[in-house]
């Protein structure tokens, strides 16, 4: 079934570390060879062996309209024909910025970059520059891209100075990153007692990088209060949840307002785009108006802007899409839960808009440690068996899943039927 992919993978491993350009793609969490993809169409992925999969990964979030959406495709081709990049301003950037600013009452200006990593990295520089402070608070299990200060893991102790989670990251840098447990208000308070040099808290308000683990409202309120009390800025990393969890992202579901919001994924519709946004008084401190430096040769790339613009305009024009997607995500996870219960499999589910997550766990995980107690063997077997049956789920229990507008109720029901058979045989 995977003959050509196995060969392609071994060839890739000769010239690309681990055969992939982003580690999760290598299927290390579930074993086996990742299918090499030939094309996508609508709700489906097709690999080079000719297998077809119902896609619940959607390039890890960007493809809310599925693969090869006609409107997006048309805009991309039309724009590409006018030139791929100019290194000069285009009106497309202004238009996409307008679309984003219009959706939020707490942001006035947006700056575009080329990835989520760049967006969060720049947001942190901005927060540090504006507050004139050095420390940042990050939560275990939240992922904000792979920049140095954000690749931290817990050291010893409680509210602790993070230590590097990767070789190549200097401890001198990560000592400025304070690591706390997600949804743990006491630890967060302690953090602010330990340091008077905190520039910002960065958080995924709906964490999607340890499976789907939404923050408790009281926890986010505590983040807001502590930032206000100590003159720190609150950064919502909405690279995943932006225009996904709702038309206004997590911010649209919650009453809590962040100072800086980062975007990526959906705002580029599959093209490399990231962005960070805030109020005038903060954004005006960025270069060239202000002193805080940030730049990018391909930032605001016209083809990427065109893709994002069509996508966001379609979403805004048809806000009922979010209700439909939300219903579909619920249909999927409730269906999976039902067959899990029927087969005596401990199973936890969650969804926010078109984001969904499930865990092979006795109780709902509230933080990274909880997720670590889930049954990973079961997850791997489930994943492999579903893949063989044509259902492409994220290859790690630490990742969220997504539904697109191209996924129908019938497709979801077929998936649940397949899951029933798979779960019957899960040990
Ligand atoms: C994907 C993601 C990032 C990193 O974005 P890249 O485009 O992969 O660099 C940052 N934050 C969150 C919340 C993400 O989901």
TrEMBL record:
Gene3D superfamilies to which the protein is assigned, alphabetical: Aspartate Aminotransferase, domain 1, Type I PLP-dependent aspartate aminotransferase-like (Major domain)
Keywords associated with the record: Cytoplasm, Isomerase, Porphyrin biosynthesis, Pyridoxal phosphate
Necessary cofactors: pyridoxal 5'-phosphate
Pathway: Porphyrin-containing compound metabolism; protoporphyrin-IX biosynthesis; 5-aminolevulinate from L-glutamyl-tRNA(Glu): step 2/2
Catalysis performed (reactions): (S)-4-amino-5-oxopentanoate = 5-aminolevulinate
EC number: 5.4.3.8
Listed Pfam families: Aminotran_3
Compartment(s): Cytoplasm
Modified residues (N6-(pyridoxal phosphate)lysine): 265
Major localization listed first in the record, in broad terms: cytoplasm
Alphabetized InterPro entries for the sequence: 4pyrrol_synth_GluAld_NH2Trfase, Aminotrans_3, Aminotrans_3_PPA_site, PyrdxlP-dep_Trfase, PyrdxlP-dep_Trfase_major, PyrdxlP-dep_Trfase_small
GO MF annotation list: glutamate-1-semialdehyde 2,1-aminomutase activity
Family statement drawn from the similarity comment of this UniProt entry: Belongs to the class-III pyridoxal-phosphate-dependent aminotransferase family. HemL subfamily.
Classification via NCBIfam families: hemL, PRK00062.1
PANTHER family referenced in this protein's UniProt entry, alphabetically: GLUTAMATE-1-SEMIALDEHYDE 2,1-AMINOMUTASE, GLUTAMATE-1-SEMIALDEHYDE 2,1-AMINOMUTASE 1, CHLOROPLASTIC-RELATED
Subunit text: Homodimer.
Record-given protein name: Glutamate-1-semialdehyde 2,1-aminomutase
Organism (species): Arcobacter porcinus
This protein's encoding gene: hemL
